Amino acid sequence: MKNQIEQAIAVLIGKKLWRCTRAADLAAFQFGNRRASTTYRGEPCEIGEYALHVQCGWRIVRHEKVLVASRDLYYPADYDENHRNIPASFNWDIQGGNRRDRLIQEFFQDGTRSCMVERAEAGSAGAFRLILEDGLSLEIFPDDSFEDEHWRLFEPDMDRPHFVVSGAGVKD
């Protein structure tokens, strides 16, 4: 599986990571040249040459510091270590209302920042790391023992197979 993952993610080397959006807790990272498309609702949007949809643990790291991670989703946007109480009315699924949405927006500087993928390294059990410029990395790590989908890499709007990794391995 490790060799299959290394071959699949190698297409991202030399491409820029320029956006992360979400649908519920699924993170959708966009890489490469931007293309015009439409959402499932028929609204105009931009997509990348490649999309990485992640339904497991992930984080963006600079050197030894986590800048944003998947579990930031479950905290209010203004939450920090000194503000430990989460209001009973907090709903993590409201776009922009959680810490992850805020940190992603700050990281990509409202869509003006992108990061070149310099290297890609596969790990064990479906994990991998994309080494980005400026000491950054995007790390994907399956964090449960179920056979459900962990992540997929594909070319949006293209009728080509998706590379899918689940707890059962690589799916065809």
Descriptive report:
By secondary structure, this protein is mainly beta. The chain has one domain. Helices cover 10% and strands 41% of the residues. It contains two helices and 13 strands. The strands form two sheets. It has an eleven-stranded antiparallel sheet with strand order 7-6-10-9-8-1-2-5-11-12-13. The protein is globular and about 45 Å long. It starts with a helix and ends with a strand. The model has no long low-confidence stretch (mean pLDDT 94).
Concise account of the structure shown:
By secondary structure, the protein is mainly β. Helices cover 10% and strands 41% of the residues.
Question: What are the SSEs and their pairings?
Answer:
Elements (H helix, E strand, L loop, with lengths): L1 H8 L6 E8 L2 E6 L3 E4 L5 E4 L2 E5 L2 E6 L2 E5 L29 H9 L7 E8 L5 E5 L3 E6 L7 E6 L8 E4 L2 E3 L1
Antiparallel strand pairs: 1-2, 1-8, 2-5, 3-4, 5-11, 6-7, 6-10, 8-9, 9-10, 11-12, 12-13
Low-confidence residue ranges: none
> Over the alpha carbons, how many angstroms does the gyration radius reach?
16 Å
SSE topology string = HEEEEEEEHEEEEEE
**Number of separate strands:** 13
- Which strand order spans the largest sheet, edge to edge or round the barrel? 7-6-10-9-8-1-2-5-11-12-13
Largest sheet: 11 strands, antiparallel
- Structural class designation: mainly beta
Strand residue content: 35-45%
Overall shape: it is globular
